[in-house]
Amino acid sequence: MTGPVVLVVTHWFDPTADVVVGELGRRGAWVFRFDAADFPRRLRVTGTLGPDGWACALRLGSRHAELADVSGIYFRRPTSFSFGTLPEPDAAWAREEARAGLGGLLMAHQRWLNHPHHLGYAEYKPVQLAEAARAGLRVPKTLITNDPGRAREFTAGLDQAVYKQMSAVRPPGDGEPQMLYTSVVEEKHLAEDGGAVAATAHMFQERIQADYAVRLTVVDDRMFAAAIRGSSPRACLDWRSEQDKLTYEPVTVPEDAARGTRALMRAFSLRFGAFDFLVTDDGGWVFLEVNPNGQWAWIEQATGMPIAAAISDALTSSGPLT
């Protein structure tokens, strides 16, 4: 191998990672791609502790990589370790040993996009909102509660309130789990007897009346902002719900939003972030959330913004450490 060596840690059907792998290949980089589910049946790992730290080797079939040669690790969305027919609780023990062993060896590497440790912390929506406010970004009025009475008090003080799911887990249903999109809160949702609100934590926010939404993709110090405009009420409320009714256009990030975004990236030690904003009629940007492992390939396809190139630059250069 002659070019930079990049590890791509994700599942094998990941079209977003495919775009990065293709870009890296065109640059002459050597890509070692694997999924956590490849361990232990297909992926072999060996780590030897020396005076300068760990010498770690990975082997998958005929492919081999030394961690010392790796310029960057692109951590996307790997699936879980796979132990076949190993019975529980043996499989549970083996998973924890794999996480501590293979995971620990990889964690010792410093050039991640993003480091899993930072990903886990940054994914908490309440933490995001608090850090965004501290960073100087405008955030919606927000309540998190399982108390129906407090929910009724909060929503009564707003022109209109919305409910937003805080995790990425799809709620169960009669068939396949369905995505839970942003929804307007109605009186029937806040039943006196507790109803669904009392069952778990819920996040309620003021509804921001916006001209359009923005998906801002940040890679190190580079920003790629796309205005997203919906042509239906559902798409305007949550653009993820009707993606065939959207248009995209590159836009410039105002200096106050850019400054707050950079501060938030530093607070979470992130090198990549997919930010969602709403832009009001007066041009103000309102922070909704940041996905530290969010999708971006469709934005590049729709706008031509060179996001894959920026990610490839970050993975093959001596840029910031995680």
- Counting DSSP H or I runs of 4 or more residues, the number of helices is 9
Radius of gyration computed on alpha carbons: 22 Å
The CATH architecture category of the largest domain equals 2-Layer Sandwich
Helix content: 25-40%
As a percent range, the share of strand residues is 25-35%
Order the strands across the largest sheet as they lie in space: 14-13-12-15-16
How many strand units?
16
How many domain regions?
3
**Unreliable segments (pLDDT under 50, ≥5 consecutive)?**
none
Overall pLDDT level: 93
The CATH homologous superfamily of the largest domain is termed ATP-grasp fold, B domain
Describe this structure in words.
With 322 residues, this protein is an alpha+beta fold. It has helices spanning 15-26, 90-107, 116-122, 125-134, 148-156, 233-237, 255-268, 297-303, 307-316; strands at residues 5-9, 30-34, 43-50, 53-60, 63-66, 70-75, 112-113, 142-145, 161-164, 183-184, 202-206, 212-219, 222-230, 246-250, 272-279, 285-291. Helix content is 29%, strand content 28%. The two termini are 25 Å apart. The relative contact order is 0.15.
